[in-house]
Amino acid sequence: MEAKNATRLDSKNGQNSQPAKIRELRVEGITKRFPGIVACDSVDLSVGENEILALVGENGAGKTTLMNILMGLYQPDEGRILINGQPVQFKSPHDAFAAGIGMVHQHFMLVPNMTVAENVALGLRESHKPFKLDLATVKKRIEEVSERYNLPVQPDAYIWQLSVGEQQRVELIKTLCFGARFLILDEPTSALTPQETDELIALLRRMAADMSIIFISHKLAEVTALSDKVAILRHGKVVFRGSTKEQTAASLAALMTGHEVVLPHNECLVNCGKDLLVVQDLRVRSDRGFLALDGLSLTVKSGEILGLAGVSGNGQKELAEALSGLRKIEHGKIMLNDIDITNKSPRQIIEAGLGYIPEDRNTEGVVPSFSIKENLILKDFASPRFSHGVFIDSKAEEKNAVELQKRFDIRCSSLNTPTGSLSGGNIQKVILARELARSPKVLVAVYPTRGLDMGAEEFIHNRLLELKSNGVGIFLISEELDELTNLCDRIAVIFKGKILDTLSADEATRSKLGLLMAGINPDSVSTEADTPTHSPRRSAHES
Amino acid sequence: MKAKDRILYVVFVSLVAVVAAVGIGAIVLAILGANILQTYVVIFTEPLRDLFGITEVLVRAIPLIFVALGIAISFRAGILNIGAEGQIQMGIVAAAALTIALPDVPKVVLVPLGLLAGAAGGAAWASIAGYLRAKLGVNELLSTVMLNYIAAQLYGYLLRGPMIDPAELQTGSGTPQSVRLPKNAWIDRIIPGMRLHWGLALALVLAVLVYILMWHTTWGFKMRASGASAKATRYAGISVESCLLSAMILSGAFAGLAGAVEVMAVHRRAIEGISSGYGFTGVVVALFGGLHPAGIIPASVFFGIMLVGTDMTQRILSIPANMVSVLQGAVILSIIAAKMVINDPYTQEKFARKLKSFGKSRGGSSGTPHSGAPEAPRGGHKGGAGVTDVTEVGQ
């Protein structure tokens, strides 16, 4: 019956009349090479009807490349794709759409200043009448799809007005409107709150009754909750294929990394000394001129890890930049170890004892074309330790690099290698080495493990805990709730440029944090806290 | 890619580039009805046939070295100075004005003074664009090009007005040129009867100094960092703006110096057309030389050969000068295109694979040096998959 429904949907609009249901999608021996790397190395996979396959692997394992091949964005160097046993060739995404394959990318492909209907119309050729865009047809189609899969959406809303979760839904609807019978979702939960994630998983389960899904993720709890089958990629090769039922999150983690990974916990909660970083009533404007921080206050004590949770875009970036001296502070005050650093230059703030791990390690943390040696002295090249007068002391530079390489286990063929050619984890180690070697008073770490594999994550977490025991105040901005609850003594939640609440480690549960991240303070709206599935997003919107 | 393959690749691409350049040139020459082969022979061999030719090549190369060194500094620091042409003219004006005003100062003082004045003139002109960029964010491409126009007009006005040789006014011929510089301001020539002068030594010394500045001092470190990644440099507490400004000023000083040397060593009076495009050719030389002094010197000589060679074709084969510059343009374009291809890792990889499959199909029987092919390509993960990070390669 489901199948019949689907065909009706298609034939009505005269699109995709021929692609039958995809009973089996199979890839055989897919190999794709990029300069210096084999991204996919003879990969074999198959997905059957109504099946959800989770594709799991560390960053750079080749997941996204494989999916881009399935979508016709890349051509494989070797191997073939078969649908229902028939070999197919996708020369462009259009061919893949025509065969009924649709993909929701990790970074949404939506035009923010267009409406939902207009965004769908962009890819829906049948709405492109000569000299006229037939939005009525598009809206009708959106309504059909949203009704059928229970995906409420307003076709006339502008994308920029929607929350991240709603934008995700628009992406799904868009893909379904193009006639997708087979969905590929690339890390769909990376920007969602825990509640939104639960909703999405429930939704995908329902949708699987009607189609097949490939679900890419490195969050293993979601994989076990959602998928029927799991395939693990490591360095471009499939290292495991099997049924999800027989696996746990821990066993998957071991398969993914090739060894047991135990992420460290903060065992000695609260060991606080004096106030090291005090932010008072901070007001800062964003690039677009609105108040990104509106009266934000917080305190980090010595020997404490303060976490900052929040959906990205609520002022984290501006806060980090204000702390490091790169963004003008309109109002308020920042004290670092009793020194006023409000609106001081980055140099003065560094001298006052701020260590900083920036959000984007490739453009903010290191100079990619500089050697590892050079990046390790990026903040101190002019200090007497590394220079004689105007000349750089290359011996001291070399010695410093050799030392830090050993201490921080930086893996590279040579210390003269351009830092940009290292893996993400190793670049982060270079940054960490530089910052920690300067023995900072306060360390601000912005998404320090984003996109890193678990081995590197473990290493970085251990270093942060070590710093804490040395009495450094750590301010950790993160979007991974597990990271925050594992490491932090206290967790502050930021929402629309303000700290909504600060929870101590033992009271910070996932659901409480999730509600706060959506802008609801469970203490003040206690009735809604019991039914978290639907209320948070709506209320976040109205506020 | 293995070293042997890489050499093969570079040779292959270079050959294609040469064929392309020669081909484009041949079309132009065929349209003109000129003897294609003969023209090429003249351009690339005639300048090197005798001592005079060789010294002339070096005379052309000297200003190119100065200009390209300055441009290398500015490009490395992330500010694209294409206003060298105007800065050269300001250097000429400053050096000429100062030395003419102080004819009685002894030579050991006046020559350095004239050079310094030239450098200061170029630096001052460049600082306008540098300041606008650092303080107001005005795009330096726009401002330097516009300042070139202003400098050209200013230069023309000065030579026709305030700085004109009074003799020109008396005789009424009115050629726009200054009086001769005082003898004490002349930079000596190395070989009697040839124009080659000691500016060459200065250029070579400065090339070494630029290398030391950029790669061995804190100032160079700062400038290179801000050029390579302004954001990361800001996060490291370095003022990118002051790096941009100082790099621009330094770059202008080198262009101004080029002008001062030209006027004090070659022409010995300020006339129109001294620069004749060195400011623009210098950009190409700098890029062709890899923005590094060690590359800039040979690149300058190469372009010197081409400049002298095309002059000679004009004289010997009477091919119109403009058509010869078309030829020059084709050569420059294909050289740059070839360099891009050579440095592109993706095509490198593709070439290596083609070579490998070619080697396989011939069974390696030809005995060519690339028969070690059946190994895994670069990027096969060493040490077994999964045990270590992929250390060498990012995404």
Written overview of the protein:
Helix content of chain A is 35%, strand content 25%. Chain A is built from 20 helices and 24 strands. Chain A is globular and about 70 Å long. In chain A, α4 packs parallel to α6, α14 crosses α15 and α15 packs parallel to α16. In chain A, strands 6-9-10-3-11-12 form a six-stranded mixed β-sheet, sandwiched between helices. Chain A has a six-stranded mixed β-sheet with strand order 18-21-22-15-23-24, with helices on both faces. A four-stranded antiparallel β-sheet of chain A has the order 2-1-4-5, with helices on one face. Chain A folds into three domains: 256 residues, Rossmann fold (3-Layer(aba) Sandwich); 159 residues, P-loop containing nucleotide triphosphate hydrolases (Rossmann fold), CATH 3.40.50.300; 73 residues, no CATH class. With 543 residues, chain A is α/β, with parallel strands linked by helices. The N terminus and C terminus of chain A are likely disordered. With 395 residues, chain B is an all-alpha fold. Chain B has two domains: 69 residues; 251 residues, no CATH class. Helix content of chain B is 71%, strand content 0%. Chain B contains 15 helices and no strands.
